[in-house]
Amino acid sequence: MNNLTLKGLTNVDGMQFHHIEGGFGKGKRSMLAKEIANIHNKELKHINEAINSNKKRFKDYVDVIDLKGTEFEVDLVDRVFSKQSIANSRNIYLLSER
Questions:
Q1: Does the predicted TM-score (pTM) go above 0.70?
Q2: Residue 28 half-sphere exposure, CB side, CA atoms within 13 Å?
Q3: Nearest-angstrom CA–CA distance, 15 and 86
Q4: What gap in Å lies between CA 98 and CA 92, rounded to an integer?
Q5: Which residues contact 37 (CB under 8 A, 6 or more apart)?
Q6: pLDDT band at 3 (very low <50, low <70, confident <90, very high)
Q7: pLDDT of res. 13
């Protein structure tokens, strides 16, 4: 996994998203599953279930990165997720635009 950096928030079509650099390569855009859930008015657990159910369709580090248990997880605490939500989650998915 390339070095991930949380660069703050960015605006896209009037919605704010966490700007994360790295992970999929230079210039590649990505989005947290949590933000995809917000866009579609779904609970995060349903997005994670969909990813887990279709895992064979995703290539690790090309389409999806599970941030759970990585050093980047620490950067997400209090900026994106609470300590409790991270502790309770099985996965913290970052998806590429691919």
A1: yes
A2: 18
A3: 23
A4: 18
A5: 43, 44, 46, 47
A6: confident
A7: 86
